[in-house]
Design goal:
The protein has 615 residues and is α+β, with helices and mostly antiparallel strands. The chain has 4 domains: 53-135, Immunoglobulin-like; 137-222, Sandwich (Immunoglobulin-like); 251-404, Chondroitinase Ac, Chain A, domain 3 (Sandwich); 415-490 and 550-607, no CATH class. It has 10 helices and 37 strands. Strand 35 (572-575) and strand 36 form a beta hairpin.
C-alpha cells in the first residue's frame, strides 16, 4: 500500500513538471490555497461582495452593509457623490472579514451618496461591487415666510414651524440677525422708507436646512412736515390694533387683538376691548411646561390636555405686570389634542397666591374645531384639564399630573441638571440587560415616572422629559425609510390613546394623517370595506386595491427604531419591539401617549445599569 501511494505522488510531480516544460519555461509552481482541504483559500479571482445596501440613519449618517465574500480577508468601502469616477472615489473605511457593515457619519444632510465595496486578501483585490446609494435625511425648510412693516423702524417677520426643528436662523439682507426657537421676530432699529429682504432656515443641532424663499418689506415712510406753520405733524392713532406672533401695545382708547401660533399647531388669541386698560399696555403670549409648583396632586386625577400651558401676560410702560383689567378680555385657545368628548373638561388659571388651579366659569368648548373660548378680567397662566366632575379648584402637591411627566422637585428642575444627576447614579453597565431593552421606552416606576428611550444603535438611554421634548428627541434618531418598505410593517392600534376620531372608524385622525386616509370618511377608497378593517383586519390597501405583504426580516431589523418617510413629508413612526407594529409619531401629544402606554416599567436599580447619552 505504501508503494502505491509513492507512485501516485511521483506521477503528480512528473505531470506538473511536464506541463511546465511544454509551456516553454521552467519556473516554480505556485498556487493559492490547497486542493481538497487546508487553509480554506481558493484558486482564481476574488469575488466582489454581493447585496450591497445603503440606508439613511440620520441627517448626517448612512448605514451600509454587504454580504461576505468567500476567501476575503476584509473589505474596502468607497464613497462617491456620483455614480461615476470610481477610481478617484473616497475610501470610507477598511474592515476585516468579520465586519460587513459600516455607519458612514459626518455627511451633509439632504445629500445622495453612492457606495461600492471591494473584497481583498493577501494577494489580490476584487473588482468593485454593484453600486448602492442613499440620501441622508433632509431637514425641512420653513415655509410661509411673511414680513410686515409696523412703523418707520420696525418690521415683524414670522414663518411656519418645522416639525422637529431645534430652532431657526433668520437673515436680513444676507446677514444673520437672529437664532431662536420661536417662529416670529420683531426687527427694530431700521431706517424709514427702506426695503429689507428676509430669508430663514431651520436647524437641528449642527444641521441646517436649505434657505426659505426670500421676501421683502419696506418700513413706513417718515411723516412729512405740515404744509404751513411750525411744529411736527403727528398722525392720529388707529382705533384698533392687532399683531401676529409678536407682542401688541394697546392704549386705553383702542381695541386690540393679539394672535400667537405655536410650533405644536396650538394657538392663542386675546381680544382687548376699549377702556380695558388705563394706559398703554403690552400683551404677550407664550407656551411653557408645568413647573413643580403648578403640578396638580395625583389625588385630583387631573389629566392636562396638551403638553403646554399658556402664559398670557400684560405690562405697562414701566414693564410692571398688569394683572387685572376694567373690562372682560376674550381668550380663544386652539389645542389640537382637544378630545371629541369634552365632558369633565375645564379651563383653569393658576393662582400664584394660593398655589392652586381655579376653574374659569363659562368656558365654551368646540370639539370639532379644537377650540375653547372664555372671558376673564385678569391674566396669568392658563391650562385645560380633564378630571371627573371638573371641580372648582385643583390642589397642587409634589407628584405628577396624568398627561405630563415632571422632573423630581428634589432636583434642580432643568432637564440638563436632571440628566447630570442621573449620570452620577450609574453603576456597572449591564450589557446583556441593555441589549434586551434596546428600542424600549422605560418608565421609572419607583420615581416620578420619568421616561427614557434606549436607542438600539448606541445602546444608551436618552431622557424624554415630556411629550414635546420626546417628539423632538425621537426624531433625531430617525432612520430614513421608503414608502414601499414602510408598507411592509403592520400598523399598530392602541385603544387607550386619547385621540380624536372624526369619522368614528376606529382610526384616530392623527393616524389617518400618517396613513393618508380621509379623516371624514370611514371608507376612503369607497370599496365597501372600512379603513379600519382594511388596515387592521384584512391587511389590504385602504387607498386602493391590493394586499399588504409584511416582511418579517425588515420588521425584526427595525424593531425599536424610529423611521422617517423620506419620500413623503418626513412622517415619523415608532416600531414597537414588543409587537413589531408601527405607531405614528404625529407630534408631542402622540409621543407622550406612546411613552405612557407602550412603555416598560423599570426599577431604579436596573435602570442605573443602562448608560446615558446626551441629546
Amino acid at each position: 500500500m505504501k508503494t502505491k501511494l509513492t507512485a501516485i505522488a511521483f506521477f503528480i510531480v512528473i505531470t506538473a513538471f511536464s506541463l511546465l516544460f511544454v509551456a516553454g519555461s521552467v519556473s516554480a509552481l505556485t498556487y493559492e490555497g490547497t486542493i481538497g482541504g487546508g487553509d480554506g483559500g481558493s484558486i482564481g479571482p476574488l469575488n466582489a461582495p454581493a447585496n450591497v445596501s445603503a440606508i439613511a440613519s440620520g441627517y448626517t449618517a448612512i448605514s451600509v452593509s454587504w454580504d461576505a465574500a468567500v476567501g476575503a480577508d476584509g473589505y474596502k468601502l468607497y464613497r462617491n457623490t456620483a455614480d461615476s469616477g470610481w477610481d478617484s472615489a473616497t475610501l470610507a473605511t477598511t474592515t476585516n472579514a468579520s465586519i460587513t457593515s459600516y455607519s458612514d457619519t459626518g455627511l451633509t444632510s439632504g445629500t445622495t451618496y453612492y457606495y461600492k465595496v471591494k473584497s481583498y486578501n493577501s494577494s489580490q483585490s476584487s473588482d468593485f461591487s454593484l453600486v448602492a446609494s442613499a440620501a441622508t435625511n433632509s431637514l425641512a425648510t420653513p415655509t410661509g415666510l411673511a414680513a410686515a412693516a409696523q412703523s418707520t423702524s420696525r418690521i415683524d417677520v414670522n414663518w411656519t414651524a418645522v416639525s422637529g426643528a431645534d430652532g431657526y436662523k433668520l437673515y436680513r439682507n444676507g446677514s444673520l440677525i437672529a437664532t431662536q426657537a420661536g417662529t416670529s421676530y420683531s426687527d427694530t432699529g431700521l431706517s424709514a422708507g427702506t426695503s429689507y429682504a428676509y430669508k430663514v432656515k431651520s436647524y437641528i443641532s449642527s444641521v441646517d436646512s436649505a434657505f426659505s424663499s426670500e421676501i421683502s418689506a419696506t418700513t413706513q415712510s417718515a411723516p412729512s412736515a405740515p404744509a404751513s406753520g411750525g411744529g411736527t405733524y403727528t398722525p392720529p392713532a388707529p382705533s384698533s390694533v392687532s399683531s401676529n406672533n409678536v407682542p401688541l401695545t394697546v392704549s386705553s382708547a383702542q381695541t386690540g387683538t393679539v394672535n400667537y401660533v405655536f410650533p405644536d399647531s396650538s394657538s392663542a388669541k386675546v381680544e382687548v376691548p376699549a377702556g380695558a386698560v388705563s394706559s398703554a399696555t403690552t400683551f404677550n403670549v407664550s407656551q411653557g411646561a408645568l413647573t413643580g409648583a403648578q403640578t396638580p396632586a395625583q389625588t385630583t386625577g387631573a389629566f392636562m390636555v396638551s403638553d403646554n400651558v399658556f402664559n398670557i401676560t400684560a405690562q405697562d410702560a414701566s414693564n410692571s405686570l398688569v394683572r387685572s383689567f376694567s373690562g372682560q378680555l376674550t381668550i380663544t385657545l386652539a389645542v389640537p389634542e382637544l378630545p371629541a368628548d369634552t365632558a369633565d373638561l375645564a379651563v383653569y388659571y393658576f393662582n400664584d397666591a394660593t398655589g392652586e388651579w381655579i376653574k374659569v366659569a363659562g368656558a365654551s368648548f368646540d370639539a370639532v374645531n379644537k377650540k375653547v373660548v372664555f372671558s376673564v378680567n385678569h391674566l396669568t397662566t392658563f391650562a385645560i384639564f380633564k378630571t371627573t366632575g371638573a371641580p372648582v379648584a385643583l390642589a397642587t402637591a409634589s407628584g405628577q399630573v396624568l398627561g405630563e411627566k415632571v422632573v423630581n422637585d428634589a432636583l434642580s428642575g432643568t432637564v440638563g441638571d436632571y440628566v447630570a444627576s442621573q449620570k452620577k447614579l450609574l453603576k456597572t453597565i449591564d450589557k446583556k440587560l441593555t441589549k434586551r431593552l434596546a428600542g424600549r421606552i422605560l418608565l421609572q416606576v419607583q420615581d416620578n415616572g420619568q421616561a427614557w428611550y434606549v436607542e438600539p444603535t448606541s445602546q444608551v438611554r436618552y431622557y424624554l422629559a415630556d411629550g414635546a421634548r420626546a417628539y423632538g428627541a425621537l426624531r433625531k434618531f430617525g432612520l430614513g425609510i421608503t414608502n414601499a418598505d414602510l408598507k411592509k410593517i403592520p400598523v399598530g392600534i392602541e385603544q387607550r390613546f386619547l385621540d380624536t376620531d372624526t369619522d368614528s372608524d376606529g382610526l384616530a385622525d392623527k393616524l389617518e394623517e400618517g396613513l393618508g386616509t380621509d379623516i371624514n370618511k370611514t371608507d376612503t377608497d369607497s370599496d365597501g370595506v372600512s379603513d379600519y378593517d382594511e388596515v387592521v383586519k384584512n391587511n389590504t390597501n385602504p387607498l386602493g386595491t391590493g394586499k399588504l405583504t409584511y416582511s418579517s426580516s425588515l420588521i425584526n431589523r427595525l424593531k425599536g427604531r424610529i423611521v422617517l418617510q423620506v419620500q413623503s413629508k418626513g412622517e415619523a413612526w415608532y416600531i414597537n419591539p414588543v409587537d413589531g407594529k408601527r405607531y405614528y409619531l404625529k407630534d408631542g401629544g402622540a409621543a407622550y401617549q406612546i411613552m405612557r402606554f407602550l412603555s416598560l416599567g423599570i426599577t431604579n436599580a436596573d435602570i442605573q445599569k443602562v448608560g446615558i447619552g446626551d441629546l
